[in-house]
Amino acid sequence: MSNMEVMTVGGGCFWCTEAVFQQVKGVEKVVSGYTGGTAPGKPTYREICSGLTGHAEVVQVTFDASVISYEELLVIFMTTHDPTTLNRQGADVGTQYRSVIFYHNETQKEFAQAVIDQMKPYYDAPIVTEVSPLETFYEAEADHQDYYNRNQGQGYCNYVITPKLAKLRKLHLDKLK
After folding, report:
1. How far apart are CA 43 and CA 11, in angstroms?
2. pLDDT, tens digit, for every residue of 127-175?
3. Which residues contact 86 (CB under 8 A, 6 or more apart)?
4. Is the pLDDT of residue 1 over 70?
5. CA angle, 168 as apex, 162 and 173 as ends, to 5°?
6. Euclidean distance between the first and final Cα of the chain, in Å?
7. Which end of the chain is more exposed for a tag (fewer CB within 10 A), N or C?
8. Is 118 helix (H, G, I), strand (E, B) or coil?
9. Cβ distance 35 to 56 under 8 Å?
10. Which domain CATH number covers 19?
């Protein structure tokens, strides 16, 4: 019997979110991509970066629910990015960098809202994380997959992703591979 499930979230740049979930126990696969937009056809990274397609940079996480729950993954998600900044994560600004949970079914929708409500007391500003139904997920180009692991010496990785991974280790060490 398979306990594999899929979660789709956007917490700013997908390179950061991908790097976080790749380190979590029970996560089998993390794919960077785009969803939530209105432009027709499969969007490109360049189109997404324009902010004109309405798509968000997201990751699709395939995980073993007998090892880690959807709810636990959402808590990790909510604590490894800033869910209080609308259409922004650090210097990355635009709707493509919004904080968003794309649910695959009604149960995921209920858990998403419950986790957001649970997290509210831990933030000084209101949580602006969007909860939306997943429609079409588009896998990002190959050079955006496994980005951090292939580019750790790059400036963005050093200054943005590495600190997020340190925060992940500090807050969720018991959930890491």
Report:
1. 19
2. 999 999 999 999 999 999 999 999 999 999 999 999 999 999 999 999 9
3. 98, 128
4. no
5. 125
6. 23
7. N
8. helix
9. yes
10. 3.30.1060.10
Banded pLDDT at 25 (limits 50, 70, 90): very high
> How far is 59 from 50, CA to CA, in rounded Å?
19
| pLDDT top residue among 2 and 146 | 146
DSSP letter for 176, please: B
Q: Give me the half-sphere count of Cα atoms (radius 13 Å) on the Cβ side of residue 49.
A: 4
Would you please indicate which residues are annotated as catalytic (active-site) residues?
A: 13
Q: Are 86 and 10 in contact (CB under 8 A)?
A: no
Stretch 68-79: mean pLDDT: 98
The residue with tokens 């700013």 is: 12
**Tokens 């709810």 — which residue?**
71
Q: Pairing between strand 99-103 and 130-133?
A: parallel
Let me know if 67 is exposed, middle or buried by CB neighbors in 10 A (0-12, 13-18, 19+).
middle
Q: In this model, does residue 74 exceed pLDDT 70?
A: yes
| Cα–Cα dist 16/12, whole Å | 8
Domain count, the chain: 1
Contact (Cβ atoms closer than 8 angstroms) between residue 112 and residue 101 = yes
